Amino acid sequence: MMSAKDPGGDTAQKAHGSQNVHNRGRNRRNNNARPHNKSGGQHHTHQRKNYKANNNRHSNRNNKPQLRSRNQISHAVLSNSLVEVSTSRQLIESSDGIQNRRRVMKRLDSMLCNWSDSLLPTASYADMLTTSSSNNKSNHPSLLSFGSYRLGVHTPDADVDCLVLAPPHIQRHDFFDSWITVLKNAEVSDLHPVATAYTPVVKFSMDGIKIDMVFARINHVQLNWLAEHKLRLEQVKEQKKMEENNVETEFDQTSSTVIVHHNNEADDELDEIADKIAEVVVSDQMLIGLDETSVRCVNGVRVSQYLLAIVGTNPTRLENFRLTLRIVKEWARVHGLYSNVLGFLGGVNWAILVCWVCKENPNAKPSMLLNLFFRTFANWSWPHPVLLAKQQLHPIKGVSSHPIWDPVNNFRDAKHLMPIITPCYPSMNSSYNVGEPQLRRIQDELRRATKISHDVCFGRKTWSDLFKGNDFFRQHANYLQVDIISTQEDDFREWFGLCEARMRILIAGLENPSFGTQAYPFAKFFTRKEEDGKHVSSFFVALRFAEDTEKVDLGPLIMDYLQIVNSWDGRKETMDLAINIVSQKNLPSFAFEVECSEKENEVDDDSTSSETSTNTNEEVASSLDDETSNVDASKATKTVQKSPPRSAKKKLEPGHDSGTPSMFISPLKRAKIS
């Protein structure tokens, strides 16, 4: 293991031993700038100048070039295996699916233009727009994609994140009013506007494609941008068609003009070119005059743009980044780690982490990048932040100042557990939702994945082992099952949205050292329609208890969550919520369904990686009463009032740095759960 006094070196230094010796003195002089913590813990108060040093420390420690042993499989072979896995698990959309998405985006763009025209207040205003810009299209919004679709890593069932950049005559209330009417008339499905969200969004589906649409309104200063943007797209399309000889021209003698006849077979390819152009023109100048909400909406596009810029234009490096990110996201989904709403990591978080590894190892193949990814972040010293670039503290001239992530001067930022910082101004912590239970589960799974990926390199396992099995429901003795229920489909959608958005409060409440409890949430909802016609979605949180705990009253721990959902003004009689304590042996059968069963012919039935934990938990589960403990949501307040306060602290044992899940707390034996 590398000592604290040996900061390592980059790839070139390791490849040339003499150069490494020559620079050893300089490295030692720079060692004082690196964070040093023998215990592994970190204080929340950071010095901004140490962020880059910390990132370098992780890079040197975990990304050292390794000499390949005789038994190690080449990374070229392993990378080809990753391609096969991504194909077998249907992580890459077919060409027909891609074309369908482009058609939907094209249709939405046309609808937005017509909607914008209908909102023009007066003819004189329209004339003003025409005379003040280079093209009369300045009154038309621009539709820009971001997220997984923009990065080129979306799965066939993924949604499309897109931004509507609107001219000044369109207000945000128009977007959540008249635009909703336009969508209803277009007969979209699953329409769900969320105007009060931190980043307001309109969710819907069109032609089988799920859309998440956000809105930003530019001011008159940037009015010409819309016209020039649209004009540039059209010009590039026409020029590309000419260059590819996809056009036929004829001279109209009557009008003395050239008539262009297009070949429609090339339209889809040209749309792809136009999509790429649409993303690269959004700069810091676009922030001029934007309010804070609009800045958050625009930053989704700018972050995607920045990540692609870091990866570079080299096709090989870009595909290496995409393949690695696809595998990481699928791994996170299978193991219940993929959900920003539930306090885990979402698409942008995983993308930034993978981009960081690619930036530090630009010439590495996908298999090496994946191995380094797991190894790096399994050993990352949180809460030190992941930074792709030095934070920009102040905006460019003309842009209003906005809050940035600042743990030194902002006590809320100092409490963040897993900061993953966006690279564009204003820099924000994209993972501020992560709590102690979620971080613990992420670290546990990263350790397991590190061991698996190491075994893959030596032929002891295959990449498919990263996705096999659903061990979460075999590792614990007791689970909290939350059932979101409604008898009407439309009501279920609204009720589910509220309960899901507040679920982090429930998870945080269950993590309570004073009661001797720790929570292990699984980021997946099991949604189904039961025989009686009810729509039900189940969510599970595993519970572990301190060794000396004899009785647990969950009423006080779930009180905050129940009070919020019970007091919702939009709740109807058709909506219900059930919270039950379930022992492992009484878990419903659908919880053990392997997520990848439809994508792989082979299902992993081997649970030896958690044999000790499983056997102990089974003994505990059998010692519990077979009768399930129920908490009625409508009677939660009464239950809480009868519960006496607890003040005695329960000692929690520290976790272990092993490939198996952390045994922080011993299982609960012969205890009563009320």
Give an account of the 3D structure.
It is built from 23 helices and 15 strands. With 674 residues, it is α+β, with helices and mostly antiparallel strands. The strands form 4 sheets. Strands 8, 9, 10, 11, 13 and 14 form a 6-stranded antiparallel β-sheet that branches. Strand 10 and strand 11 (535-545) form a beta hairpin. Helix 14 (315-334) packs across helix 16 (366-378) and helix 20 (503-510) packs antiparallel against helix 21. The longest helix is centred in the N-terminal third of the chain and has 24 residues, at 95-118. The protein is globular and about 70 Å long.
Briefly, what is this?
By secondary structure, this protein is an alpha+beta fold. It has 23 helices and 15 strands.
Strand-helix topology:
Layout: H1 11-15, H2 17-22, H3 24-30, H4 50-62, H5 75-88, H6 95-118, H7 123-131, E1 142-146, H8 148-151, E2 160-166, H9 172-175, H10 178-185, E3 189-194, E4 201-206, E5 209-217, H11 223-243, E6 247-252, E7 257-262, H12 267-280, H13 292-311, H14 315-334, H15 347-360, H16 366-378, H17 411-414, H18 436-457, E8 478-486, H19 489-501, H20 503-510, E9 517-521, E10 526-529, E11 535-545, E12 551-552, H21 555-566, E13 575-583, H22 611-623, E14 629-632, H23 636-642, E15 672-673
Parallel strand pairs: 2-5, 12-15
Antiparallel strand pairs: 1-2, 3-4, 4-5, 6-7, 8-11, 8-13, 9-11, 10-11, 13-14
From the structure above, extract its key features:
globular, alpha+beta, five-stranded mixed beta sheet, 23 helices, 674 residues, 15 strands, 14% strand
